[in-house]
Amino acid sequence: MSVAIIPARGGSKRIPGKNIKPFQGRPMIAWSIRAALESGCFQRVIVSTDDKGIAKVAREWGAETPFMRPPELADDHTGTLPVIAHALQWLADRGEAVETACCLYATAPFVRSEDLRAGRDRLNRGDVDYAFSVTRYAFPIQRALRITPEGRVGMFQPEHFSTRSQDLEEAWHDAGQFYWGRAVAWREQRPLFSEAAAPIELPRHRVQDIDTPEDWERAEWLFKAMRAGVS
């Protein structure tokens, strides 16, 4: 059995109510739920939350909320791995045999069903523990700058001051949308970022972290542009 698990903790501080705040006509979490349901990849789509309001909205959009996440897994410092491990253990305790699980973030309005299917297909090739979304950095990270305590500028890697951009290795980062994994890898909380993981490449214009009001505003502009066929 394959399951989608959408972590959605209550109590967001920088964007209050972020997981269910309206985004382009739907509660934010609804975009992830619908993509999971429409992908055809999952026997169950489960939202792991500690918040009754989030749970209610999740059910209205077709997800299950068979348990409430315990408080010790709902603070500001809890990572993704223990949250997914908890959900899988809850299912195992009830005789549910899960083989693969996809952690799908609640604030991923750009996620597409075809990307979820690509992640599933890559994981099912059998040579990795995880397959997750990544995208390219827009600028060579080897030429990144820092601002010093004195208000001056310095390079993180000054040895690359004269290196041409096209001669530098391309760098990628986590796109923050979805993470397919084998159930055993999730339960054992094996590291996500390792040679046991495979990338699912996404274009930069479909990737946007949403952690601040500025991020939210930019995401809405990107979303509108894509809907209008501008991107």
Can you walk through the features of this model?
The mean pLDDT is 95. The longest helix has 15 residues. This protein has a 6-stranded mixed sheet with strand order 4-1-5-9-6-10, with helices on both faces. It has a two-stranded antiparallel ribbon with strand order 2-3. It has one domain: Spore Coat Polysaccharide Biosynthesis Protein SpsA, Chain A, CATH 3.90.550.10. It has 231 residues and is an alpha/beta fold. Helix 1 packs across helix 4. Strand 2 and strand 3 form a beta hairpin. 29% of the residues lie in helices and 21% in strands.
Give the SSE layout.
Blueprint: E1 2-7, E2 22-23, E3 26-27, H1 28-39, E4 44-48, H2 52-60, H3 80-93, E5 100-104, H4 113-123, E6 130-136, E7 145-147, E8 153-155, E9 172-182, H5 183-187, E10 197-201, H6 213-227
Parallel strand pairs: 1-4, 1-5, 6-10
Antiparallel strand pairs: 2-3, 5-9, 6-9, 7-8
